[in-house]
Amino acid sequence: MALAVGASFFSPIILKPRAAFASPVACGGGGGNHHAQEAALVRRAAELADKSAGFTSPHPNVGCLVVSGGGGGGGGDVAGEGYLYAQGTKPAEVQAVEAAGERCRGGTAFLNLEPGDCHGDRTAVSALVQAGITRVVIGMRHPLQHLRGNAIRALRGQGLQVDVFGEDLQSKIIEEAQKACRIVNAPLVYKAASRVPFSVLKYAMTLDGKIAASSGHAAWISSKKSRSRVFELRGRSDAIVVGGNTVRRDNPRLTARHGGGHLPMRIVMTQTLDLPEEANLWDISEVSTIVVTQRGARKSFQKYLASKGVEVVEFDILNPRDVMEYFYDRGYLSIFWECGGTLAASAISSGVIHKVFAFVAPKIIGGKNAPSPVGELGMVEMSQALDLIDVCYEQVGPDMLVSGFLQPIPDLTPVIPSADETSAIDPTVTPYDSSIIFFYKTWDPYGAFSNFSPHPIQMPDENGNYATWSTVEHYYQAHKFVGVDNPLAQACVEDIKSAKSPEEAARMGRSVQRWQPDLVRSDWESVKIDVMYRALKSKFSIYPHLNSMLLSTAGSVLVEASPHDLFWGGGREGEGLNYLGRLLMQLRSEFLGETSATSGSSILAA
């Protein structure tokens, strides 16, 4: 039997031909074939949305198709496509209408997800309206409360017909397509519903259910093809979790190994901190490691890890639920668990595992004391067993990959009233705290403040000629190497300028700075604040809506909530210097006319 290939990290593998997506389904009013065609187009948008997985850090997955003339059910052709590559890059809707050109006029746009507002100016909505789109079909409303329903109301307010799956369009095949939309954005949906990151448990076992021999030897249970697949799955996550036993026994590197792209953080969970002094995970030259442990455990070893650059986080009581809630607060969307049976059982019992990937190798190892993938769950009858949902099977080399959800993906429709609706009903209720405003990811309520936000800026070069930079981050990272009399430094500037996303621009700049410090300009530490200041001032001067958004925060403290960057960000517990927030507050004061400062240097006195 042929199996579908290229399945998403989140999506089930569909064991049926693609043509089945377009088969007629009986619907009221004879609209079965129409529904099938539109469902297939929204599914295609969901497939597009998943294209950046593994190459950039997890983000809202958005895909868009523009169908000319007759629309989805009326015989139109796909005129343009697009997908969001990374936070801070061009919206899928903008890409699709640019690709379609004049064929947008009178056309229909199909999206897997309601547009978000990561620009602060409804760029996606404006692109669809200005292109002449007359109808928009949306697979699901945006899960995040501050974005939910905003674009739908804006589009309808501009006179476009908007049909939302499960609301305006209903049938069995519509329901299945909407489910595909929820699956491709499962991390975002869980973030909105459960306050923990979307967590996937992966393990490889023999046919008799062992993850190692009685001796503990486990290399290798699964095939090379299966291990390559695991590298791909890792790249789709913010972080990988292992336990202390895995570090002691296997000494893993936990790299994605896909030749570039996103590198997930490594997290070690250990009650006692009984870990070896020499371990691959203590090498943080390419990617960071975080060790979470019980408060007070091996203080001397904590100092040793800190000297290696490894972050240690203590918990009063170490358990998977508290750890996942902590990483949720740090902005993580997706976590990949590759731990042993004891920690796996604890994570499942805590309710933080949402999906399972089990690679089953056609091998038998036996052994009364050989470990199994999941330890004691306290179940004594088969009726207590946990049933997987949406179970899928895929042959990977000689192995069989079995996957399924332990918990159904939450259905967030409808949520009434929303925060905005509540505020409209009762003006004394404000949806957001105005005293301290946090921003970090571009999809946060104030995400347009981020240096990663997708706002091109015009900046003069050394000769006074103006050049366009895709984002503030592109400009900032490239200027580490500007003016250095070395062809390699000059090449770095051009490479960073042409990077596809601010995430990749940052990755390039930081990597070269770490490995080739001689290419960094000698005055960088003294000028970097002013470089960022000038770029931010350009951004908030060019875009009136951003200027208005910044001025609207008057009286509030602005905090860049990065838990990793203690210079530009505020840190995990406010220990960061928050220079990005300070610069924005200084700019706000200047724009309000409260100060005559014209240079970012004065912030150093703060």
Rg of Cα set: 25 Å
Using the alpha-carbon principal axes, give the shape: globular
Strands of the widest sheet, in order across it, are 10-9-8-7-11-6-12-14-13
Uncertain spans: 1-7, 11-30, 414-434, 595-601
Number of strands: 18
Biggest pleated-sheet summary: 9 strands, mixed
Number of helices: 18
Distance between the termini: 67 Å
Q: Percent range for helical residues?
A: 25-40%
Question: Given the helix and strand composition, which structural class is it?
Answer: alpha/beta
Tell me the fraction of residues in β-strands, as a range. 15-25%
**Mean residue pLDDT:** 85
Quickly list its features.
single chain; five-stranded mixed beta sheet; globular; 18 helices; alpha/beta; 606 residues
Question: Can you offer a commentary on this structure?
Answer:
The relative contact order is 0.09. The longest helix has 19 residues, at 524-542. The strands form 4 sheets. A 9-stranded mixed β-sheet has the order 10-9-8-7-11-6-12-14-13. The model is unreliable at 1-7, 11-30, 414-434 and 595-601 (pLDDT under 50). By secondary structure, it is α/β, with parallel strands linked by helices. The chain contains 18 helices and 18 strands. This is 5-amino-6-(5-phosphoribosylamino)uracil reductase.
